[in-house]
Write a structure and sequence with these properties.
alpha/beta, Rossmann fold, eight-stranded mixed β-sheet, globular, 10 helices, 245 residues, 8 strands
Length: 245
């Protein structure tokens, strides 16, 4: 596995590169408070099918905290710069949770660069756009989760720290993703864990309906962290989707 960094001004993206270079490149973008390790299980599944690039967005994981938090649209633009600078071609863009907001912006801004898009547990439910409500939903989702999922989450949250977490949460809350989704031209897969309380079924169905060329699937028995608890079915759905093209 190769690690490398990309820098634009005060903003750094740290990335790991694994798998086999070939026809497909999967680009994995994490949610709030998380980082590259959160995608390790899913990356292991996807490495069988091509090259896997996972990133730590600015202020998360091994990427240093900048002075100012970017908006979701600005973070999407930074991701575009990273893809072009790294010569990743036209990767299959996969985002989880807050990462879905980032990749949605990137895909809407550069449809030529991202023909394939996967949104896993898309936020932010427009009917519950408040910090208190989101915090409650996250606590509900964690109740009854496996020790593995809770352990990975707590380790990543601790690394991020409360100051940067709140800055990015504010950026999440200010983002009206429902305005961006209709602009996406990518062949899109929307994935929901069947018991995800952060992303209710009605909201995720609305996300899929707002994107002109989208399909929604549910992974039974999983919550918001579906690709951590059981990455194999998520990987299978992703491969079914990209193989339909």
């Amino acid at each position: 596995m190769r690690a490398h960094t990309f820098v634009r001004g005060e903003y750094t993206i740290t990335a790991t590169d694994s798998g086999t270079a070939g026809q497909r490149t999967f680009l994995l973008v994490h949610g709030i408070g998380m980082g590259i390790p959160y995608f390790s299980a899913l990356a292991g599944e996807l490495e069988q099918h091509g090259r896997v690039v996972a990133v730590d967005l600015p202020g998360f994981g091994n990427s240093p905290e900048p002075r100012h938090a970017l908006t979701m649209a600005q973070t999407g633009a930074l991701l575009i710069d990273f893809v072009e600078a790294e010569g990743l071609g036209r990767p299959i863009l996969i985002g989880h949770s807050m990462g879905t907001q980032v990749v949605a912006e990137a895909a809407a801004q550069r449809p030529d660069l991202f023909p394939e898009l996967v949104l896993v547990a898309p936020t932010l439910n427009r009917l519950e756009r408040s910090m208190g409500r989101e915090a409650w939903r996250m606590l509900q989702d964690l109740f009854g989760e496996s020790p593995k999922v809770i352990g990975v989450g707590l380790k990543n949250y601790a690394r991020t720290g409360p100051r940067w977490f709140i800055k990015k949460l504010n950026a999440m809350m200010a983002h009206t993703v429902e305005d961006t989704l209709p602009l996406i031209q990518a062949h899109t897969l929307v994935v929901r864990g069947g018991r995800d309380r952060v992303c209710p079924g009605g909201w995720v169905a609305e996300v899929a309906a707002l994107i002109p060329n989208a399909v929604m699937v549910e992974i039974a028995g999983c919550g918001h962290e579906t690709m951590v608890k059981d990455p194999a079915p998520v990987a299978r759905e992703i491969m079914r989707h990209v193989n339909r093209v």
